[in-house]
Amino acid sequence: MKNTNSQVMAKVLTKIAQAVRRLDESEIERLLAGDFRVELVLETQEKRHNKNARNPDADVPKDISDIAQCLRNLGDCAEGRTLLDERVPNKDSLTRLVRYLDLPLHRQETKERLKEKIIDATIGYRLRSRAIRGTNSLGNTAN
Could you please report the per-residue DSSP string of 29-66? Predict the structure, then answer.
């Protein structure tokens, strides 16, 4: 089945929206102020999948999704902090994880603040929800 013009336009706009979501707050401000120029760059699939081209971020999405999944499965914030300390070594990687989790990001945030934000979004909210509902980790009520 052939895509209609509206389907094609929707796909293009979705790709653009995904790219804009990866920008941090200061980059968005610069874009709105006219300090940035937005370009669409078309690549052939061969160029995108060239195994000889060195791309340091090639494995990042898989690794980040693995880390996010591990964090979602943990039941303790301290375990989450240990995981982040071991597997996410720098602010750049933390920033990628924050973006992957679709959390708000500000350029001036420290590594520690980014870790807190990630832990709160993946573990902390569940712990608070359980406390409010009065359930423990086994799903039993407190009363």
Answer: HHHHHT----------HHHHT-TTS--TTTTHHHHHHH
